[in-house]
Specification:
The protein contains 1 helix and 27 strands. The protein has 357 residues and is mainly β. The relative contact order is 0.13. One of its GO terms (cellular component) is extracellular region.
Length: 357
């Protein structure tokens, strides 16, 4: 019985700054605590205060902190975050400009101070691709949105790139802000927002909007018997078989392979293969893994040792595959050097668990 796989992409979204986003001459961007606004739009803070808008009292900066401030926010008073100019929220997790991504579209969103009275639009068209104001989900801010389908061919279309090696898909667009409707000034902003679709777990991504590639994963002993339970030192053959490989792709190889177990809501994880090579960690743990190329299917052979101490739960595999135009080449791996373990990763789907008894 092949394990069932979900077909979600891992999504991430980024916003990077291309032009200034804080300019104290713009309405809604004051210098605080007696700071003065300089000709160049930066604040000159009075002594004892710092930060882009002088909003941080230096004497309150905390070395020890009970909250985690994201995006280079600085902790003060032990549990508060002072955010950099592109982020807001209690722990600075909320960007002012960002994109919500799903499988079919990119929703570009922006928050602005209530005093903001300008316009936000995609750089390619000030008139045709304007973000419209919607009811704000954050009190004290205005909210703007524009939903652009991935396959849009109109003036608002997104820039799409596909990584030929990994199959990762990337959509990107530039968002302009003008603070005084109708005039673009040097103190207006430009940001790049993007959606990145990782092909991890997902095999090759030819087209995000039209993609249904299944990979069946089987765990077997050397005699092709499917196994559900193994003993220490048993050999496990893990086979990845794409069900509907697009034309032109003939080989499959395991790029990354991670073994994990969830017990009492804790994830124990070991990276077995990283960029096709066995990790130092794998070696330290005393088991072997090899990455075989077998034409149409990718195979890993593992030797089961007590993988996670004190863990009775089933073991699952998380993986990333590479699809090759022909038979995949065998990579010569460098001599092993220590590599960090993956941290706190959330697994999007699970292969069939094997119980190690
Ligand atoms: C900033 O303010 C201080 C006084 O608080 C002043 O001496 C200094 O010249 C100011 N800097 C600029 C660049 O205006
Ligand atoms: C997600 O997709 C639907 C169409 O299926 C679209 O209407 C919606 O706006 C999208 N949401 C986001 C956040 O992109
Ligand atoms: C966004 O703007 C930057 C800076 O002008 C430029 O390098 C980049 O190519 C632009 N990206 C898109 C998708 O237009």
């Amino acid at each position: 019985m092949p394990p069932s796989l979900s077909h979600l992409f891992l999504l991430s979204t980024f916003a990077s700054l291309a032009l200034c986003s804080f300019y104290c001459k713009n309405p809604g961007y004051p210098c605080l605590n007696g700071g003065t606004c300089l000709y160049n739009g930066e604040c000159n803070c009075t002594s004892g205060f710092r930060g882009f808008n002088c909003g941080l009292d230096s004497s309150t900066i905390s070395a020890a902190c009970t909250v985690e401030c994201h995006n280079k926010g600085i902790c003060f008073n032990g549990d508060k975050c002072y955010c950099t100019k592109d982020y807001m929220g209690p722990t600075c997790q909320q960007a002012y400009d960002f994109a919500d991504c799903n499988k079919s579209s990119m929703k570009i969103k922006a928050y602005r101070p209530t005093e903001f009275n300008g316009e936000i639009f995609l750089m390619q068209s000030m008139f045709g691709c304007k973000l419209t104001e919607v009811t704000s989900t954050i009190p004290g801010y205005k909210q703007y949105e524009l939903d652009v389908p991935h396959d849009s061919t109109g003036p608002c279309k997104l820039k799409k790139t596909i990584d030929a090696t990994t199959g990762d898909v990337h959509f990107e667009v530039n968002v302009s802000t003008i603070h005084h409707a109708g005039q673009f000034g040097m103190y207006d902003g430009l940001k790049t927002v993007s959606c990145h679709y990782s092909s991890r777990d997902q095999a090759i991504v030819k087209d995000v909007t039209n993609h249904e590639l299944l990979v069946s994963v089987t765990t077997s002993d050397g005699n092709t018997q499917n196994i559900q339970e193994i003993q220490t030192n048993d050999v496990i053959h893990l086979t990845f078989n794409p069900v509907n490989l697009p034309g032109g792709y003939k080989g499959v190889k395991i790029l990354d392979l991670e073994m994990y177990s969830v017990q009492w809501n804790e994830v124990n994880s070991i990276l077995l293969l990283k960029d096709q090579c066995m990790t130092q960690k794998a070696d330290e743990l005393g088991y072997s893994v090899s990455n075989e190329v077998d034409g149409y299917s990718g195979r890993a052979i593992l030797k089961a040792i007590p993988l996670f101490e004190n863990v009775q739960a089933s073991v699952y595999f998380n993986y990333r595959l590479r699809f090759c135009r022909n038979r995949c080449k065998i990579k010569s791996c460098p001599s092993q050097s220590p590599k960090p373990m993956p941290m706190g990763e959330i697994f999007k789907h699970q292969g069939q668990g094997i119980r190690i008894v």
